[in-house]
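Inverse folding, one chain.
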């Protein structure tokens, strides 16, 4: 019989949710800052934004952004002198009066790529320019936004259109083009989070196979989370205002030693990204996780469906590695899971599992549920349900489908060519299961095109069974026994 892997417990339950920890001191400090500090800092930030935009326009004038083209030498000097200074003033306006800097920044020759993490706040972008100024990867849409366009163009940023193919070749052409004066800089996590861990690294910045210098941004140990930019937290304008109201916000920037890839890592950008994530984890003390941007999107979907936020943190990269699941497939299964989990507590009970299938609690259904739940937990999480699908249900269902178990069941339940009726189904269930307590009426109504009908046509029956792979497994076991298709999970 198939065995289902246990999904490892992540070191952080859900890094995409964060709530400000309000204390009396923070409330009083915010009130004082709103009256005294915020107006002055707002003026400083406005001056900085205008200055950066004007300088960006001057420094990018005449630059097309095509691979192999660059801004003029005097424009480069203007950017390298003014942008870090103005960005530092911007940090002061945001309440970062002083910043602790550790380590030594590598030269462009030593590390043509700089990566930053954890990416926990929109303010990271300001610190990025102040302490790791470089070319960034940016969405193609940003090339047409006022202010952002000028700044990004003056930094010779690389614009990526994810809707078009061969973007990797465009990235490589930009990086390998001679004459670049700034390192390629970015946040490989791909999204913001609470900063309590390191998400999986996207491999885009690692594809060229060049040495990288990791840089760790750490907010103070007593940081109340005013700048955390997550889905369930405060909005952008709110976080900006609250940060401006504080007497001082703490930030440290740590330059780690340059990481030089091995031959194997150069040939495998995914491995390279994973190893650098582990390297940063060891130096920063933040746990490396399998979470990714896809998990953040799933958290939002879970909350929309009424489930706890952590239901969406399935460690998507792990699921993709184990089973090859796509984001679309996982989202579809999340909707099914939400329909099953009537209590909306994120843990699927055996009764909920059977109620959703309209299948009575029998030895077979109990066995299937226990296989998905190898640790015998109080309920099955969505991540563990996905593991059950990948290791057991889908392989067995596919095998049953190949051997036409659906047609066999329909044929044996068919009543004089008129489809599956309650009476004809009851005969098969009672003879095969030796149990008169099967809820045959519920099962047949599930398969019927019309929920009020007592007969299910062949097309309606096949459509219903194929939409729920659990049925093919249960029917296979019902007619041929549980040991008919032994299956071993694939290697990790």
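Residues assigned per position:
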């Amino acid at each position: 019989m198939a065995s289902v892997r246990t999904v490892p417990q992540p070191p952080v339950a859900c890094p995409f949710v964060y709530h400000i920890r309000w204390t009396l001191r923070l409330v009083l400090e915010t009130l004082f800052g709103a009256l005294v500090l915020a107006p002055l800092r707002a003026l400083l930030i406005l001056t900085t934004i205008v200055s950066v935009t004007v300088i960006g326009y001057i420094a990018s004038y005449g630059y097309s952004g095509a691979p192999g083209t660059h801004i003029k030498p005097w424009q480069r000097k203007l950017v390298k002198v003014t942008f870090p200074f103005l960005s530092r003033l911007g940090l002061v306006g945001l309440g970062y009066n002083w910043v602790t800097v550790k380590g030594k920044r590598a030269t462009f020759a030593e590390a043509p790529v700089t990566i930053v993490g954890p990416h926990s706040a929109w303010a990271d972008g300001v610190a990025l320019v102040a302490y790791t100024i470089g070319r960034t990867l940016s969405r193609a849409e940003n090339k047409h936004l006022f202010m952002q366009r000028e700044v990004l163009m003056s930094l010779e940023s690389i614009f990526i259109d994810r809707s078009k193919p061969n973007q990797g070749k465009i990235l490589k052409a930009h990086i390998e083009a001679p004459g670049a004066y700034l390192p390629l800089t970015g946040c490989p996590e791909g999204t913001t989070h609470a900063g309590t861990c390191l998400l999986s690294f996207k491999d885009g910045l690692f594809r060229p196979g060049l040495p990288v210098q990791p840089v760790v941004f750490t907010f103070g140990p007593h940081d109340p989370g005013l700048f955390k930019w997550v889905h369930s937290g405060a909005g952008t304008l709110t976080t900006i205002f609250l940060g401006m109201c504080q007497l001082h916000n703490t930030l440290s920037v740590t330059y780690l030693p340059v990481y030089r890839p091995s031959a194997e890592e150069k040939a495998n950008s995914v491995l390279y990204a994973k190893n650098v994530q582990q390297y940063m984890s060891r130096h920063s003390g933040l746990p490396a996780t399998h979470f990714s941007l896809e998990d953040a999107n799933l958290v939002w979907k879970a909350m929309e469906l009424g489930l706890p936020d952590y239901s969406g943190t399935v460690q998507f990269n792990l699921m993709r590695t184990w089973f090859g699941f796509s984001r679309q497939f996982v989202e579809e299964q999340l909707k099914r899971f939400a329909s099953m989990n009537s209590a909306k507590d994120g843990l699927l009970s055996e009764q909920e599992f059977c109620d959703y299938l309209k299948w009575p609690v029998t030895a077979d259904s109990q066995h299937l549920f226990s296989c998905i739940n190898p640790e015998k937990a109080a309920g099955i999480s969505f991540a563990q349900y996905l593991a059950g699908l990948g290791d057991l249900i889908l392989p067995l269902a596919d095998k049953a489908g190949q051997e036409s178990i659906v047609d066999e069941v329909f044929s044996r339940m068919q009543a004089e060519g008129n489809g599956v009726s309650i009476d004809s189904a009851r005969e098969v269930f009672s003879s095969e299961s030796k149990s008169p307590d099967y809820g045959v009426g519920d099962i047949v109504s599930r398969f019927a095109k019309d929920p009020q009908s007592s007969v299910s046509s062949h097309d309606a029956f096949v459509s219903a069974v194929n939409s729920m792979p659990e049925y093919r497994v249960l029917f296979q076991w019902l007619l041929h026994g549980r040991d008919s298709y032994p299956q071993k999970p694939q290697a990790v």
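The CA atoms of residues 413 and 427 lie 8 Å apart. The first helix runs from residue 24 to 35.
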